[in-house]
User: What shape does this take?
Amino acid sequence: MAKQPARSRGTKRKTTEKFGQRRLEVRNAMIKDIRGIADLVRRVYEDMPAYTHGEIRGQINNFKDGCFVALLDDEVVGYCATMQVAEALAFQPHDWDEITGNGYGSRHDPTGDWLYGYEMCVDPKVRGVRIGRRLYEERRALAEERDLTGIVFAGRMPNYRRLRRRVEGPQDYLDKVVEGKLHDPVLRFQLANGFEPERIMEGYLPEDKASMANAVMMVWRNPYVERDQPVKKRLPRGVESVRVATCQLQARAVVDYDEFLRTVQYFVDVASDYEADFILFPELFTLMLLSFEEKELSPVEAIERLSEYTPRIRTDISEMAMRYNINVIAGSHPTRMEDGDIHNVAYVCLRDGSIHAQEKIHPTPNERYWWNIKGGDKVEVIQTDCGPIGVQICYDSEFPELSRRLADEGARIIFVPFCTDSRQGYLRVRYCGQARAIENQCFVVLSGNVGNLPNVGNMDIQYAQSCILTPCDFPFARDGVAAEASENVETLTISDINLADLSWARAEGTVRNLADRRFDLYRIEWDEDGKHPGKPRPRREPLGPSHAGGG
Assistant: This one.
């Protein structure tokens, strides 16, 4: 059989066929498919936990070329997910959580020599169009295109529990299925598609009750590649440049809302002139809207007044982002939610007109006491035209679990708007931002307020040195700082960052923090529904006056 010409690396696959009046399309999965994929998995695996949207988002973001969907009349009826891994990882004992990075596909290694399949599901109601076979063909084509040694995955054995009394154990069951003495629909399908059983993997997926947590390691070896020893593929040092601006904003008294907006627009305009892709504003930068009130408002009155501006801020900054063709991370703004609680919210206004919100998860003691601000319960990446990003508001950057979640979902830039009154508070945010950049091998961008606003609570004094932080390794700045502003001076700091350097560092860097995590020892479990808040936290008196405190 002649080998088909390989498509260029990164080429998107898309095949479309018609069956009577029906239309079947097989292509790479996209972010817009997440809801359909999640619904499909729930239909197929009714007796097992479903994927969260964040897990599927991570699978696609971490290796979009390895995730495929089948759509019948635009409905998702098939999905498969793969990643590249080293041979040693693929063939050593492991379970599903460990090999997939807890379901996010975050252990994808672009230098790995094997394609590892960790999800394959087809709508059982769709018959006669060979969706499973088509998805397997996409996997094989990808392995051939990238000159990988082969494909490996752990296949279910769903008839094992029902037939276990007729066999002496999972290995005997596998042998009898191979010999044709017993029937297992999944294993027979995989055998028919050219995969060979390697060994039984006990305890692979405890949630798989039908297989009694067992799986079969199935292997397909690429006939176009002959290797006596595993090889380490190299990742080219490419260029994926993104220009980032961080605005160190002077707190100033304004005469009305329009003057405040003109101040914001000035910096957006300047960043746009420099062709920046992103501009970040500080936390609580809208507090200067309180400066033209006739009297200093109490904390409760101030929150109510600020929340009235939320619709205008969202609309005006979104229009600004589109007009100046730049993605605006609009610091943060206290907002009253539908349930009546006040949250500290970062609005991300993208240049395509979409608006996203990331709530602060951990309000500081002062925020909780003086403004009764409540924490949000969701953190997820935001898809932009420069790839997925994350936002952590000030104090949130001091909780490493949040950044790790964002990195697992594919974030390569994390924006941290902050508001700190002292050098100590600032350094807490700065040092934690640097730590997040190192441990997640990502860029972290900080933006803070400077100056003061008399008669406006939480803006008595400010301390900031906004900066753009990098991992500490050879491709990056010597001291891990791509750029930084002068202390306590209003300015715009701009730097080009190369996202491709992150891919290289994660795969071939001096240290590989993401890849070297011990999933066999520890992992983070998220309560996706937020239904288990635990015991109420004691309400503590703040230390010192009513300032933001920060970090």
About this structure: Confidence is low (pLDDT under 50) at residues 1-10, 530-548. The radius of gyration is 26 Å.
